[in-house]
Write a structure and sequence with these properties.
By secondary structure, the chain is an all-alpha fold. The chain contains eleven helices and two strands; from the N terminus they run αααααααααααββ. Helices cover 67% and strands 2% of the residues. It has a two-stranded antiparallel ribbon. Helix 3 (77-109) packs antiparallel against helix 4 (117-141) and helix 5 (148-181) runs antiparallel to helix 6 (184-216). The relative contact order is 0.11.
């Protein structure tokens, strides 16, 4: 029996188009993910101070610690702040998602049962992180003087849910890092950062409420009697925002041991049949020109049978008879 071997080109041999990471110009981050938290924190930190510097230079706000939102109420500081924060929100969302994958992978390595509570905590952390990043986007795109309600909703999502998210991640660090590897540094840093964040959140909310109430009652303004309470409120807001960014930096050591590959997608069989590629068409044409193994075997069988018949046939020439 004769076998015909047909070489089929593997998917790895086919030229691949640039993936999602290449399109986002984040190719170096595929194997250097520890740069992502540093890039995110640095970018958002610079966005706050850039809008502040522009607003002060244009005399649009006071130079001594205004609320972050009041550094971006007028153009051009408003446009710069919105654009830079929107980019930072995308980077922040990438950190949240990679942190979710990191904790999920560690839980799997530890053979944690799928129904365990830590998987639910990890999923809840993902939702909280995405909502917090979305809230920051609302803060940047809805100015406090024009769209007060969506602006305050975004601030609540960014600060309140952001603080809760950091506590969730601190608990996950204890579960996936400390209990197995006994590494205290990351856990201690995240715990201290979360405590400071919670204190700043309480102080910021309390002092801002007192300032608003006292100002509405006509007991002063930020330039006289209410100056101290106003500065306490603004300074704690800045410290709260910076503490969230410093918490993101704690992801860098964990991301050092990670790498991400570009995602692969697959079509349903019906779709591939309706839209065959050029390579598949060429393979189909080549295969149609190659005789099938069954047809070749049938031809060989008929030829052997014919040879056997001719060998068993004898011809008597003198009697003019043929014996089959």
């Amino acid at each position: 029996m004769i076998f015909f071997m047909i070489k089929v080109m593997n998917e790895s041999e086919l030229p691949k188009p640039p993936g999602a990471m290449s399109i986002l110009c984040l190719v170096p981050l595929k194997r250097c993910l520890w740069l992502l938290p540093i890039l995110t924190s640095g970018w958002l930190f610079s966005s706050f101070w850039t809008s502040y510097a522009i607003a002060v230079s244009y005399n649009q706000t006071e130079p001594d610690f205004p609320y972050i939102s009041y550094t971006a109420t007028e153009s051009p500081a408003r446009s710069v702040f919105s654009q830079m924060v929107n980019i930072g929100v995308v980077l922040l969302g990438m950190n949240v998602f990679l942190r979710y994958l990191f904790c999920k992978k560690y839980l799997c390595i530890q053979l944690t049962p799928p129904e365990d509570k830590w998987y639910k905590i990890n999923s809840a952390g993902l939702v909280l992180g995405i909502l917090s990043a979305f809230g920051l986007s609302l803060v940047a795109n809805f100015q406090v003087d024009v769209h007060r309600i969506p602006h305050y909703i975004g601030a609540g999502l960014a600060f309140i849910l952001g603080t809760v998210y950091c506590w969730f991640q601190t608990a996950l660090t204890y579960q996936v890092r400390y209990k197995v590897h006994r590494k205290k540094i990351a856990l201690v840093v995240q715990f201290i950062n979360s405590v400071i964040m919670l204190l700043m959140l309480v102080l910021f909310g309390t002092t801002k409420l007192i300032y608003k109430v006292q100002k509405a009652r006509g007991k002063g303004s930020k330039w006289d009697e209410l100056r101290s309470i106003y500065l306490t409120s603004t300074i704690t807001e800045w410290l709260l925002a910076l503490s969230i960014l410093t918490f993101t930096l704690t992801y860098a050591p964990d991301f050092k041991n990670m790498r991400v590959d570009e995602p692969d997608i697959y079509f349903e069989q019906e779709t591939e049949m309706k839209h065959p590629s050029k390579h598949s068409k060429e393979m189909a044409d080549n295969n149609s020109n190659i005789p099938r193994v069954e047809d070749k075997n049938m031809e060989e069988g008929l030829a052997d049978e014919y040879n056997n018949v001719t060998k068993s046939t004898s011809v008597v020439s003198n009697g003019n008879t043929c014996k089959l």
